[in-house]
Amino acid sequence: MKPILKIVIASMVSLAAMQVSYAQTPEEQGLAIAQEVENHDNGWQDMLVNINMILRNKQGDESTRDIRQKVLEVSGDGDKSLTVFNNPRDIKGTAFLSFSHIIDPDDQWLYMPALKRVKRISSSNKSGPFMGSQYSYEDLASFEVGKYTYKYLRDEKLAENDSFVIENKPLYEFSGYTKQVVWIDKTRYIPLQVQYYDRKNELLKTASFIGYKQYLGKYWRASKQLMENHQNGKTTELLLTDYQFKTGLSTRNFDKNSLKRMR
How many domains does the chain have? Predict the structure, then answer.
């Protein structure tokens, strides 16, 4: 069975490459690549992961946070995610709930134990930093093809990986970015690097996705993500471990009314 499986996989990769190459304009080609990224990551249902977040300032001083996250794949809309902080003690129990959408603004709520209240994140304020990190609230939404327009820029090697380079322009009215430049691995259709340009169209941040591992024979997840802010010299590193998939989560596990009960 293994040789047959290899042939099938090779054929699927070839078919995806043909679909991309048949696109006529740079815009059509960019959209075709984005659709392949989405197609290659469908069907995982739900996911659990532990995250160690390391914050570094320009001088190299560090602080760390331990996080657990659960994500629910939603058919026909964006994914739902719940992020809970376990450490340090002063933010333990802080919980962030996000309902991503394709066209409508994402719904996001933050529960802060010290204040004992749930704060809704305004749709016009998602470019602000998430919990002191270099990730914005906008960065935490799931990738959905319908959120952007696309343009193929070029082929390029990145760390010895043959990649497509495409430009994504957010359709979201209040986006903190004018565009994102994304390096996509040609074989696995996974993001390797994203450059974010601010509202002045100047390079703001670069996200790198490192140490990919495959789960369930299909789904690729990075074991490390690094977000570098080029304007303030700060970085946020995420170390992701203990991925679990298809654990039986449902919408009931993502209820905003239960945020205050997070531990």
Answer: 1
The confidence score (pLDDT) of residue 173 equals: 87
Q: How confident is the model at residue 22 (pLDDT cuts 50, 70, 90)?
A: low
Which pTM value belongs to this model?
Answer: 0.89
> Is the pLDDT confidence value at 9 over 70?
no
Nearest of 225, 230, 257, 228 to residue 241 by alpha carbon: 225
Q: Yes or no: say if 141 and 78 are a contact pair by the CB < 8 Å rule.
A: yes
Q: Is residue 26 part of a domain?
A: yes
Q: Is residue 143 part of a domain?
A: yes
- What DSSP string runs through 49-113? EEEEEEEE-TT--EEEEEEEEEEE--TTS--EEEEEEEESGGGTT-EEEEE--SSSPPEEEEEET
Identify the domain containing residue 56 by its residue range: 2-42+49-66+126-246
What CATH number is attached to the domain comprising 160? 2.50.20.10
Task: Write the burial class of residue 11 (CB in 10 Å: 0-12 exposed, 13-18 middle, 19+ buried).
Answer: exposed
**Over 60: is that where the pLDDT of 5 sits?**
no
Rounded Cα distance between 67 and 85, Å, is 5
Rounded to 5 degrees, φ, ψ at 216 are 55, 25
Classify residue 55: in a domain, yes or no: yes
* 226 membership: H or E segment, kind and range: strand 219-229
